[in-house]
């Protein structure tokens, strides 16, 4: 008896774009804002279409690289063109197929918390497009910072972007309307729709700079902030203390 494959709206949108449907677009649902369109083309952008923070992160990459949440591979392909060894992972089977068809040979369908292969270590773990959000929750951030120690080579680094989304909770006077007894305001629930297909809900973490610094230092990392943009998104480098 064959199993029905799990919904993969992201993978199917990326594949549709790759096959020539340049209008392919996802609909993003969240518990903090109105539904929003996300064109598949965004995952295929070139170096000069990337925000400055992403270009900075690519400049800071070194050694063997793990591109986590690689999508359609825009970062992996740029790094491969610069001569780096790159392994790309994504939880979407369709995205992994797109990665492979676009020339990212070492691409695998994994989530962030899958165990590394025996002896597999990376000099850089790259997490872009608010990529730190892959950890899901504050508990997930704590868990990931421990897990990453097994993935990183000596002197290895995590390069990640995250955002402070407290502005979503400002009233008309600019005062923050936060429920201090509720979950952390940066823990957001999302789901994606492509065509008639909606994927399962998932958690995404928007961790502010103070939270990132506190959690990373507690887990034994040096923390260096490398830049910030007008949307309150920032790039951080976490390096294992020797």
Automatic annotation (TrEMBL):
InterPro entries, A to Z = Methyltransf_25, SAM-dependent_MTases_sf
Coiled-coil residues are none
On the tree of life, the source organism's domain of life is Bacteria
Q: Name one GO molecular function term.
A: methyltransferase activity
Q: Which Gene3D superfamilies match?
A: Vaccinia Virus protein VP39
Biological process (GO) annotations? Answer: methylation
Whether Transferase counts among this entry's keywords is yes
Enumerate the UniProt keywords alphabetically: Methyltransferase, S-adenosyl-L-methionine, Transferase
Q: Where is the Methyltransferase domain?
A: 65-156
What protein am I looking at? Methyltransferase domain-containing protein
